[in-house]
């Protein structure tokens, strides 16, 4: 299997009390794993109290703030990566902007991945290949972890996860919430109530947010016109797409590209 997945960097830090990162926005995916200590994460309007064995994910272009505890500050490792297949792999691991947390026991493989990346630095002739190998191992462990824990999902969470997977696979097409509910096998109103209960958002808003995030990713490719990007994320009318983009991001697509995207 050839995956578009690239290692960028990694690190480990023993944070001082109340050490805070953010609010900031990254250009790549970033996963943290907490070895010991405590802290908190604030992202996508939600707050999480985290401790040893917890991991958390920050998506590209997602604003997030994370802070070490005052009494027992955390020590964590992180890995930064990018690639077109990253989002699908994270979805398979039941991770998303709305569900950015996973748990792996502190005696698990995740406790050692930073040290393994450190060892690749000594491999002058094969450092890139060795780093890629560990990144693949990281995702393999993450998927195995999600597979072993998926049986603990409540029925409500399974319905929502199935709806999310459908959205991720079909966002470029015209989608009706009733269609998603039919695929999932429940009533449209019930699906909406589950999204609000579990994700604190509606299916329609989740779809809109996902399309807006994808449009930002596609905007990096200057070979694509605004009209092509609009069609690629499910908007057949480029003018309507531009209106929704500006309403969501506070800037029109062409202005965003001129301001944010580097010219080659």
UniProtKB/TrEMBL annotation:
Q: Which InterPro entries match?
A: AraC-bd, Homeodomain-like_sf, HTH-like, HTH_AraC, Tscrpt_reg_AraC-type_HTH
HTH araC/xylS-type domain ranges (all copies): 161-259
Query: Which key words tag this protein in UniProt?
Result: DNA-binding, Transcription, Transcription regulation
**Pfam families, A to Z:** AraC_binding (PF02311), HTH_18 (PF12833)
GO molecular function terms noted in the UniProt entry: DNA-binding transcription factor activity; sequence-specific DNA binding
* Highest taxon listed in the record's lineage: Bacteria
Recorded protein name is HTH araC/xylS-type domain-containing protein
Which taxonomic lineage is given here? Bacteria, Bacillati, Bacillota, Bacilli, Bacillales
């Amino acid at each position: 299997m050839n995956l578009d997945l690239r290692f960028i960097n990694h690190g480990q830090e023993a944070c001082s009390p109340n050490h805070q990162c953010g609010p900031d926005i990254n250009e790549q995916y970033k996963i943290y794993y907490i070895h010991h200590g405590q802290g908190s994460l604030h992202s996508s309007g939600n707050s999480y109290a985290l401790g040893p064995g917890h991991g958390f994910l920050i998506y590209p272009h997602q604003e997030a703030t994370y802070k070490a505890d005052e009494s027992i500050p955390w020590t964590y490792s992180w890995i930064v990566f990018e690639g077109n297949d990253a989002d699908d792999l994270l979805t398979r691991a039941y991770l998303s902007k709305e569900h950015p947390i996973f748990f792996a026991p502190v005696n698990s493989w995740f406790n050692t991945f930073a040290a393994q990346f450190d060892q690749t630095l000594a491999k002058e002739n094969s450092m890139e290949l060795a780093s890629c190998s560990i990144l693949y191992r990281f995702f393999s462990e993450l998927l195995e972890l999600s597979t072993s824990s998926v049986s603990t999902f409540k029925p409500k969470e399974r319905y929502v996860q199935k709806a999310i997977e459908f959205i991720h696979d079909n966002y470029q097409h015209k989608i009706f919430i009733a269609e998603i509910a039919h695929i999932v096998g429940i009533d449209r109103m019930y699906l909406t109530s589950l999204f609000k209960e579990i994700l604190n958002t509606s299916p329609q808003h989740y779809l809109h947010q996902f399309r807006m995030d994808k449009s930002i990713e596609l905007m990096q490719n200057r070979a694509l016109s605004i009209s092509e990007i609009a069609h690629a994320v499910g908007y057949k009318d480029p003018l309507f797409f531009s209106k929704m983009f500006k309403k969501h991001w506070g800037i029109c697509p062409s202005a965003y590209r001129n301001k944010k995207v580097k010219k080659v």
